[in-house]
Amino acid sequence: MSGGVDGQCDTRTSILVVDDHTTFAELLTGALSQEPDLRSVGVAGDVESSIRLCGARRPDVVVMDYHLAGGNGVTASARILRDRPGTRIVMLTGDPTQHVLEAAATTGICAFLPKDGSLATLLETIRSARCGTMAVHPSLLTAAEPGRRPGAGVPALTQRELQVLHLMAEGHSVGANARLLNITPNTCRGYVKTILVKLGAHSQLEAVAVASRLGLLTARS
């Protein structure tokens, strides 16, 4: 929970915007200022300043562009999460390649969105990120998908595991997935753990990235 003025508690979600395009950063911070439950705590334009400001401002959520001066958003995210593992990072990219998707997912970011996507989607993702929800926009999965179908060397997932995987790719929470599949949350968590093991992933977002590369998200559930 963020600190407010004069030491009072501020329940609004605090956001650090990291982008080297000044116009985009200004437009986004302006939009955040219009939201009663969100507040901007600063703007950084390169890797080093993003890490420095994150340590000083302690934001709940970081909106991170992939392309940055002095490196990229994956590098910055890895260093931020090493120092402050509870930080939620939403990465934006105009370059949705499979390599970028998997590199971002392995750092521990919680969401991966197209930079030219809608503001409404970004704001919704920021709100969900603080609650621990992960999200990857379907358009990025489509763009990153190499078109390969599951075959030799691809882990075999059961029909139910594929159903859970597809719902994970849509960004639903475990509770929502359980309701949609008419199973208990604990049972759903069990499926998620099995999927992570089978795909050799450490997070749900990384599992979705790996599944996209292997063509599992094109498999019928």
From TrEMBL:
Keywords: DNA-binding, Phosphoprotein
UniProt modified residues of type 4-aspartylphosphate: D65
A Pfam family matched in the record: Response_reg
Stretches assigned to the HTH luxR-type domain: 150-215
Domain of life: Bacteria
CDD domains associated with the record: LuxR_C_like (cd06170), REC_NarL-like (cd17535)
Domain Response regulatory: 14-130
Entry-linked PANTHER family: TWO-COMPONENT RESPONSE REGULATOR
Protein name (record): Response regulator transcription factor
Phylogenetic lineage: Bacteria, Bacillati, Actinomycetota, Actinomycetes, Micrococcales
